[in-house]
Amino acid sequence: MDYVRTHVEAVFDDSEQDGSTISESGSCDSSSDRSFADELGLMELLEGDKAHDLIFRNCKSGLGDQCQILSVLRNGFRNVGSRAKLKTFQVFQEAVQMKHGGHGGAKVKYGWCSVSKHELKTIFEYGFSEPLRNDGSFGRGLYLSPDNSPLDCLKDSASESEDGMRFLLLCRVLLGKSEIVPQGSTRSCPSSPEFDSGVDDLVSTKKYIVWSTHMNTHVLPEFLVCIKAPFNLTRSPKRLRSPWMAFPVLIKTLSKFLPPSQILVIQKHYKDQQNRRITRSELIQRVRSITGDKLLVHIIKACGHKVQH
């Protein structure tokens, strides 16, 4: 094994797919047609964006090495329908907050749900509809996994195509006051007006249950993550062992070791890659030629694991 190369490439997540988006064919390729994402009103997030880096790290931590994260996109709320959904969510959030006594009563969390590609347009334009992609074991509603457990919803989804394409929505979830829903329930609404949502467990929650009566007022799709995953996902993925650093963090750290003139060159290369003038592979090679592998390995060993926490 080339130890130096392995650790240097880990800074960049050893992937050239970061600057990609979803194409018409279901692949994520920076050179392919972006009309699919544009049609949905989605905006691609690139490395260095705070939301991108947080979602990327959470996915890597929760999914391990068995999945490849191809693209992270944000709902831009560009059209009338999506803006109306955003406004609706905000109105219901205010209502739930007032219902439970003001500040903090709304209790909004982020949650994951898996969707198929052909469902995406309908969800972003019109909202969620039945039948839903779950086994109904907790009643009629939309089931979401907490934001630190993407595997729990991904393992129950089918591959979108032979190459293992899958799609995860990261949604804002208006939980309000939750009640425990026993497995085997056939309910489709809260047991009383006191409650707004359901959970499988109040302490160690693995499922948020948003009833079918509430799923288009209490759930707001905000991010779409495009993933390649094997047919059989393991329930206990390997933790990400290699250190990972966002490129802006790497540049900031390098500035402590390199003269300003070299930092400016690296920043220019990074900007060129963000603007797709050069490929990710070219960026990596150019940075390595400036810094040398010895310095990069030193920085990764010293700072890489700290950045992940």
UniProtKB/TrEMBL annotation:
The lineage of its organism: Eukaryota, Viridiplantae, Streptophyta, Embryophyta, Tracheophyta. Keywords: Developmental protein, Nucleus, Stress response. It holds the Pfam family RST. Its main location: nucleus. This is Poly(ADP-ribose) polymerase catalytic domain. Residues 30-248 form the PARP catalytic domain. GO terms for cellular component: nucleus. It comes from Arabidopsis suecica. The keyword S-adenosyl-L-methionine does not apply. Transmembrane segments: none annotated.
